[in-house]
Amino acid sequence: MLTHHLRTHRSDENLAREGQLAWQLAGIAVDPVELDDDVVEMVVNRVIDNAAVAAASLARRPVVSARSQALAHPVSIGGDGATVFGADAARRTSPEWAAWANGVAVRELDFHDTFLAAEYSHPGDNIPPIVAVAQHLAASRGLTGRDVVRGIATGYEIQIDLAKAISLHQHKIDHVAHLGPSAAAGIGTLLGLDQETIFQAIGQALHTTTATRQSRKGEISTWKAHAPAFAGKMAVESVDRAMRGETSPVPIYEGEDGVIAWLLGGPDATYEVPLPEPGEAKRAILDSYTKEHSAEYQAQAWIDLARKLHEEYPLILDEPSRIESITLHTSHHTHYVIGSGANDPQKYDPDASRETLDHSIPYIFTVALQDGTFNHETSYDPERAHRADTVELWKKVSTVEDAEWTRRYHSNDIAEKAFGGRVVIRLADGGEIVDEIAVADAHPLGARPFAREQYVTKFRTLAEWVLEAAEIERFLDLAQRLPELGPDELGGLTITAAPGALVGVEIPTGLF
Prior knowledge:
MmgE/PrpD_sf_2; CATH 3.30.1330.120; 4-stranded mixed beta sheet; alpha+beta; 2-methylcitrate dehydratase; two-stranded antiparallel ribbon
């Protein structure tokens, strides 16, 4: 890896293209280096993972809304259009709207892959816009599954490299500001565009996808699922404009009125961004990890610890009156974003939105502790959230920052990087239960790491309610052959709901 030194430059310094981060990112996108086999394997896993969580969300209101918006638009004349999750594969729309609808479906349940460092991210959000463009232009450009894999690997590489170095949330900027550039670069790799075009697309994508973090604060709204889909849609449109010769603000990161100076660390801030050298394999996807449970990633390990305690202490933990308090000693991020350190009363409110509850570690830990399991639907059911014994115990759960767990959270050593912590359960009789967990069971270093078998099982489990058995097998066969797919097969990278499965789902109306 090489390190790109990033700082603000005055306009009269005339920072050359070669010194700009966006140009370096575009250089990664055009690098023809071959992909390692384990990277290809993981790309296939994540395509399956995305489809799994999308299938589970097909009847949820934000997904229905986004799908209806997309299907209100015809196929643009520049290609054959792209498919929309849930709809018949023959029903296509323009690629930016397919990216939008599929992006919402993938993100709605907060159930796909993650990478956490200086910034947090869901790099699987790169997949919908890249696949949408591939389907749209497959025939005219002769695009193959191998091209799709290469584009996805670029998207992951760039988003994860940015997340390793540049904190957005510290300055209350939403993390999708790293997604717009990465998705634009991934589309550039897919299409084999030149460095100048990708450079302009990255700048436009960043400029149009920078927003505040209020979408993940307090009463969290349905925009949480739409934000990454919007970034993907903007990436598609940015590439289109750049291909037509349109330019972007330059230098987008380093300018004296640019992103670093006014949205992030300020005119004196510096960042050290790790990037692969020319000819170096793009392997960042292997640093990311998926979810076994539908909740914020920092909650994954805590759910696993809670279900372990449920099995070990059933006679103690089945009655809230036996418990005086539960304290989760954890990282700065977990405490201040999904813990009591956020000072969001909504995180303790049984009437809070589903989006709020999946970012409330006090609620999530309570339910997992009581039930010994965690489900993407039943664990968030309003009746479940209002259960008297749950509310009583929930109010007793708090988080505190622990310096050691914060250090491990930010460690660059994969062997010690951790997203869990230590729990102290004080009992009414004066006793204590103390335990800890570093990483989730599904993490590569966890008790039961996810591999192809687990990704396939996750898809089957989440899709069986809405897809026919033959459709499940068709998609799994196609997805696992992704690197060998020809142009005529890329349209099959979608899922079609079984006849009648979505009957009764109310379709909202709007402008389109």
